[in-house]
């Protein structure tokens, strides 16, 4: 077992060189944390081996992103990261239609990546930036976001600036239709929306279409659907708060 000082030196060297062997040494040094946390959540309907795999992937991700010069010990940094990914796994596991492991694991990585990026730079990363950080294609990132929340606004496409797209990967639960207390009033307000907005609601929140699928059906862009969703939610919130 390395001392904290020895580990910090290896982290610095890994950040300088990107040497995969150094990363593996660090993972081996801290693998006990993944084991402990996986055992902590075992016996709740999910096999330990599955939980350990998720925890190990989170550990690798954490090792790759950790900066010892930020003032935190790695053990303090990695514990909530692994715990968060395990909880995400449980949430996804409990869905009535299970997604492939590849999808929900990638989605958890996307959320952690977005949170870390926001903490460091104060802005949300673009889809392209997330893809580059995680070493994935932009198509894979979009697929994971779309599949993870097919009937909510947790993953929307918005314009960061005139140059491209921005995925709002940090969930905003207040944007879900399920959060409205008076469903009857909500239905009445939806009837007051213009025809295109009503179609967006039907496709996205009733039929469960992705933004891209809804856009194709309506003959508009994915960006248009994203903006329409946000506009619809804001409009309904305002109407129902009066």
Number of strands: 2
Identify low-pLDDT runs: 148-181
Radius of gyration: 21 Å
Question: Helix/strand-derived class?
Answer: mainly alpha
Number of alpha- plus pi-helical segments: 11
Q: How much is the average pLDDT?
A: 76
| SSE string | HHHHHHHEEHHHH
Helical residues, percent: 55-70%
Overall 3D shape: elongated
Q: What does the main sheet amount to?
A: 2 strands, antiparallel
Strand residue content: under 5%
- What would you call the quaternary organization? single chain
Distance between the termini: 61 Å
Kindly report the spatial arrangement of strands forming the biggest sheet.
Answer: 1-2
Structure description:
The chain is mostly helical and 242 residues long. Helices cover 67% and strands 4% of the residues. The protein is built from 11 helices and 2 strands. A two-stranded antiparallel ribbon has the order 1-2. Strand 1 and strand 2 form a beta hairpin. Helix 2 crosses helix 4, helix 3 crosses helix 4 and helix 4 packs across helix 5. The chain starts with a helix and ends with a helix.
Question: Features of this protein?
Answer:
242 residues, mainly alpha, two-stranded antiparallel sheet, 2 strands, 4% strand
């Amino acid at each position: 077992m390395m001392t904290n000082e020895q580990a910090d030196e290896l982290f610095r060297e890994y950040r300088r060189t990107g040497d995969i062997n150094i990363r593996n040494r660090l993972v081996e040094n801290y693998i006990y944390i993944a084991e402990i946390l996986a055992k902590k959540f075992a016996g709740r309907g999910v096999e330990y081996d599955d939980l350990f795999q998720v925890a190990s992937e989170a550990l690798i991700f954490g090792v790759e992103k950790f900066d010892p010069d930020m003032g935190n010990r790695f053990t303090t940094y990695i514990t909530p990261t692994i715990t968060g990914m395990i909880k995400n796994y449980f949430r996804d596991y409990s869905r009535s239609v299970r997604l492939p492991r590849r999808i929900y694991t990638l989605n958890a990585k996307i959320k952690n990546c977005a949170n870390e990026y926001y903490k460091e730079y104060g802005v949300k990363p673009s889809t392209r930036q997330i893809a580059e950080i995680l070493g994935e294609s932009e198509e894979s990132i979009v697929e994971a976001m779309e599949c993870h929340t097919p009937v909510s606004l947790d993953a929307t496409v918005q314009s960061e600036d005139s140059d491209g797209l921005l995925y709002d990967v940090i969930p905003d639960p207040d944007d879900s239709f399920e959060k409205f207390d008076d469903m009857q009033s909500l239905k009445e307000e939806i009837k007051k929306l213009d025809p295109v907005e009503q179609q967006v609601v039907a496709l996205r929140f009733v039929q469960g279409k992705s933004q891209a699928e809804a856009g194709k059906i309506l003959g508009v862009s994915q960006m248009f659907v994203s903006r329409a969703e946000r506009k619809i939610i804001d409009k309904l919130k305002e109407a129902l708060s009066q």
